[in-house]
């Protein structure tokens, strides 16, 4: 039984059919757009788009549940810490102050702060589904072939694709080893001290490293024996030439980036959209 | 031989830089095109090293000192390169799971062509052709990891055949296959052997390889070639057993019966073996030594009742399985890969909880215990010791579980010493684990599971990848534990193991319990062995050929006789 979390799933949808290269370009363009703006309208638009992508790619909730839990924890922390460090940052940015109520001392709750923090939250929320759909819909070797296509050394590309490829196996090993160590009486969870816990993690990591080294030796021998690295170049069985849909997607993403820059420089004249004035 | 000589060792020797002694000495060996050679020998005899010399991993990946000469296709290998040699020699490595490079079958087969910069169009055509030779053309889009063991091997084979190589080298091709799949694999290897190609098989499972004829057996022992002759002559000489390699079972039986085996009796295959000469000896031996036994029932200890399990809620891995394990017995759970036997073990250990049914130990429901608590009652030893060993020193490794449970230092020392004694590791107690051989590491993991004195010991494929000598060593050791009262469950697809060491076998196929019976009876039933991907034992066929009217009794008789011989040897 293989863990199917975090690994490429073979389906035939619009998103899967796009070349890995164009997906990477779209991902980079859209994240840049998100990074360069604090305008919630632009962010919302991209968020909607990225959730549509998840839908189109037929990604199921259980595939990404674990990832979402971690992201949720991270976002909650981020949200609280942002508030704790500068409870009136929103006031500073937007220049007005609509006080809702005060916890104590400097910890006021203002509409401006809420708006700022929600905008920030949405920024993360829009990028994450994009990343997820990129990882789960891209065939590692096809992706490697497209990276090689834009001039990156094929050795790097092959290494990358093999890493993606064997990640689920290593995750599986981790699981098996951890269970076996627990059966030997090593509790992984619980109230153990930090140093104690670190030692226990080591009791999984050392066997994991050993088995992974074995894997690497085997695969590199298998590759050598089949002539890997013989020539300065190589060809790719699974290369997919860029099609119309690829160009269209890239152009659309580029337009979105330009649009967001336009909103920033021509309409808002600032990184922020200010509804308070 | 009029065919051209394609591999030529003369006065060849090799020593790894990391080793004190040479691994190969004075090798003189010629292999011609059109030949099919079996290279046999116990683990550590140097047969894999010999294979690595042929495919170029030596000297280009594993460094060392070469003496004498080795020519592959007329070219001195030390002056060649790994790439040049890969054009001539195709190697199918032992573990096909770990050698897949491509994400789908087609891509994996194409890897050598990709490195050759073949244009995509041409590549796709070539892959198609090769895939159809090994009957995999319908699977090109599949993930190789999702295939069955036999199919995986076909893909690996196709991957080296695309290059149109002159030499096909198989490094222990049967190691990870169940008996039935192994049989198919041997047939496939035989089918692709051709006039203009040499096939070299490195393997210690002689009887399985000889299912299809080979031209010569080259036997290696302690780095030297000790026999290089036709299978009939090598088998007749009895040199295999001397070197710690297992003979075909029918031949062992013939020897027990006192048959004077000669090459003229054609012992290489049971089909050609002169059973007419054997029959009187074998019948007499059977009459003299057969004592019918009855399996005795003991107290039930572990009860698995109507257990079902599914990983995804859709496909049932185990369906309503019930098994009783009796106190003090050693049983095997068999079935092909993916049949659900490992899942069953995981359920017993509490790694997962059954969807339905329950598991009790001495009448107590196990579901209320955590994994660690269960670990004190039921210990599991995994197949690969590297998956378990996490400490540098042997003593620390074995004491790990006790330390984690917070026992006093005195007590730990006492129990670890005991376990090390039992496992024959006491003299090594202050050694680092890395200095041990695979079999010794295995014993370290067994010792570390034994220290909390579990009621039941489960071992997953305890002898996988072990040659006859190490196999006997590990199994005799387990037998001794068992005789001292340890209840043991073995998960395996090794027929010898179940036949020779366990009285009872539980067969799991497709998630269901197919049979629960005495091991030798199972291996005499064509119908059951077929369903469980096993192979009927050749002893049964031998008995039939010799006109014994109770072939089942003959197999049982052999087992008892053989056990005695073994424990006298050990």
List the helices and strands and how they pair.
The complex is a heterodimer of chains A (277) and B (570).
Chain A lengths: L13 H4 L2 H16 L4 H17 L4 H25 L3 H6 L4 E6 L2 E4 H27 L2 H10 L4 H30 L10 H32 L18 H25 L9
Antiparallel strand pairs in A: 1-2
Helix pairs in contact in A: 2-6, 2-10, 3-6, 4-6, 7-8, 8-9
Chain B lengths: L4 E12 L7 E9 L3 E5 L6 H9 L1 H4 L3 E9 L2 E2 L5 H7 E4 L12 H11 L4 H14 L15 H13 L5 E5 L7 H14 L5 E5 L3 H4 L6 E6 L2 E6 L1 H7 L1 H4 L6 H8 L18 H15 L10 E11 L5 E11 L3 E5 L6 H9 L6 E6 L2 E2 L5 H7 E4 L12 H11 L4 H14 L15 H13 L5 E5 L7 H16 L3 E5 L3 H7 L2 E6 L2 E7 H4 L3 H6 L6 H8 L5 H19 L1
Parallel strand pairs in B: 3-8, 3-9, 6-7, 7-8, 13-18, 13-19, 16-17, 17-18
Antiparallel strand pairs in B: 1-2, 1-4, 4-5, 9-10, 11-12, 11-14, 14-15, 19-20
Helix pairs in contact in B: 4-5, 4-6, 5-6, 6-7, 15-16, 15-17, 16-17, 22-23
The whole-number mean of residue pLDDT values of chain B reads: 89
CA-CA gap between termini of chain A: 58 Å
CATH-derived architecture of the largest domain in chain B: 3-Layer(aba) Sandwich
Helix content of chain A: 55-70%
Which percent range describes the beta-strand content of chain B?
15-25%
Cα Rg of chain B: 25 Å
Strand order in the sheet with the most strands of chain A: 1-2
Helix fraction bin of chain B: 25-40%
Largest sheet of chain B: 6 strands, mixed
Which stretches of chain B are low in confidence, meaning pLDDT under 50 for 5 or more residues running? Answer: none
Tell me the count of domains of chain A: 2
């Amino acid at each position: 039984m293989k863990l199917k979390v975090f690994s490429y799933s073979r389906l035939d949808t619009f998103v899967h059919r796009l070349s890995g290269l164009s997906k990477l370009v779209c991902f980079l363009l859209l994240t840049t757009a998100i990074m360069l703006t604090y305008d919630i309208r632009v962010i919302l638009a991209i968020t909607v788009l990225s959730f549509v992508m998840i839908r189109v790619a037929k990604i199921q909730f259980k595939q990404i549940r674990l990832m979402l839990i971690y992201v949720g924890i991270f976002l909650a922390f981020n949200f609280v810490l942002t508030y704790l460090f500068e409870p009136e940052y929103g006031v500073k940015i937007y220049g007005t102050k609509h006080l809702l109520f005060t916890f104590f001392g400097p910890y006021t709750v203002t509409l401006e702060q809420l708006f700022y923090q929600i905008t920030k939250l949405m920024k993360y929320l829009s990028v994450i589904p994009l990343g997820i759909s990129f990882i789960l819909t891209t065939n590692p070797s096809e992706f490697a072939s497209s990276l090689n296509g834009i001039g990156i050394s094929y050795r790097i590309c092959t290494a990358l694709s093999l890493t993606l490829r064997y990640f689920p196996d290593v995750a599986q090993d981790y699981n098996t080893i951890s269970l076996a160590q627990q059966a030997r009486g090593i509790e992984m969870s619980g109230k153990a001290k930090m140093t104690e816990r670190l030692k226990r993690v080591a009791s999984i990591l050392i066997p994991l490293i050993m088995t992974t080294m074995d894997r690497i030796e085997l695969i590199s021998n298998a590759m050598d024996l089949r002539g890997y690295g013989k020539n300065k170049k190589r060809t790719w069985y699974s290369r997919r030439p860029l099609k119309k849909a690829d160009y269209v997607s890239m152009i659309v993403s580029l337009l979105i980036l330009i649009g967001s820059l336009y909103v920033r420089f021509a309409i808002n004249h600032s990184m922020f959209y200010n509804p308070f004035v | 031989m009029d065919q051209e000589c394609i591999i030529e060792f003369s006065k060849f020797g090799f020593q790894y830089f990391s080793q004190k002694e040479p691994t190969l000495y004075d090798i003189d060996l010629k292999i011609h095109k059109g030949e099919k050679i079996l290279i046999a020998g116990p683990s550590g005899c140097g047969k894999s090293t010999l294979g690595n010399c042929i495919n170029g991993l030596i000297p280009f990946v594993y460094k060392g000192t070469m003496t004498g000469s080795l020519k592959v296709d007329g070219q001195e290998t030390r002056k060649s390169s790994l790439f040049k040699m890969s054009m001539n020699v195709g190697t199918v490595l032992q573990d096909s799971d770990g050698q897949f490079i491509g994400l789908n079958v087609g891509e994996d087969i194409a890897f050598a062509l990709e490195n050759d910069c073949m244009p995509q169009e041409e590549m796709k055509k070539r892959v198609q052709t090769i895939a159809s030779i090994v009957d995999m053309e319908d699977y090109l889009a599949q993930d190789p990891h999702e295939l069955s063991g036999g199919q995986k091997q076909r893909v690996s084979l196709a991957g080296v055949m695309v290059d149109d190589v002159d030499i096909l080298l198989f490094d222990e091709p049967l190691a990870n296959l169940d008996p039935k799949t192994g049989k198919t694999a041997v047939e496939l290897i035989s089918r692709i052997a051709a006039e203009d190609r040499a096939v070299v098989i490195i393997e210690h499972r002689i009887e399985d390889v000889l299912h299809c004829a080979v031209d010569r057996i080259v036997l290696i022992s302690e780095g030297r070639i000790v026999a290089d002759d036709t299978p009939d002559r090598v088998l007749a000489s009895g040199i295999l057993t001397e070197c710690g390699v297992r003979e075909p079972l029918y031949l062992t039986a013939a020897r027990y019966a006192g048959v004077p085996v000669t090459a003229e009796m054609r012992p290489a295959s049971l089909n050609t073996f002169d059973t007419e000469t054997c029959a009187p000896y074998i019948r007499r031996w059977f009459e003299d030594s057969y004592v019918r036994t009855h399996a005795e029932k003991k107290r039930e200890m572990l009860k698995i009742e109507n257990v079902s399990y599914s990983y995804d809620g859709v496909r049932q891995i185990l369906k309503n399985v019930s098994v009783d394990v009796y106190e003090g017995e050693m049983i095997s759970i068999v079935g092909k890969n993916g049949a659900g036997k490992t899942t069953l073990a995981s359920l017993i250990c509490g790694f997962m909880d059954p969807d339905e049914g329950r598991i009790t130990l001495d009448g107590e429901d196990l579901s209320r215990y955590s994994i660690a608590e269960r670990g004190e009652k039921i210990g599991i030893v995994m197949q690969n010791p590297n998956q378990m060993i996490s400490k540098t020193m042997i003593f620390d490794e074995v004491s790990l579980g006790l330390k984690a449970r917070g026992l006093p230092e005195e007590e730990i020392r006492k129990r670890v010493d005991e376990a090390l004694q039992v496992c024959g590791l006491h003299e090594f107690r202050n050694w680092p684990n890395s200095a041990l051989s695979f079999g010794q590491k295995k014993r370290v993991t067994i010792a570390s599971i034994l220290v909390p004195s579990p009621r039941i010991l489960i071992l997953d494929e305890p002898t996988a990848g072990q040659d006859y000598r190490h196999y006997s060593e590990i199994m005799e050791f387990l037998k001794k534990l068992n005789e001292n009262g340890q209840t043991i469950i073995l998960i395996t697809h090794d027929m010898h193991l179940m036949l020779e060491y366990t009285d009872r076998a539980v067969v799991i196929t497709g998630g269901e319990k197919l049979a629960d019976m005495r091991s030798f009876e199972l291996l005499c039933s064509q119908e059951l062995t077929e369903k469980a991907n096993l192979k009927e034992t050749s002893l049964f066929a031998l008995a039939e050929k010799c006109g014994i009217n109770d072939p089942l009794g003959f197999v049982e008789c052999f087992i008892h006789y053989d056990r005695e011989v073994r424990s006298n040897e050990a």
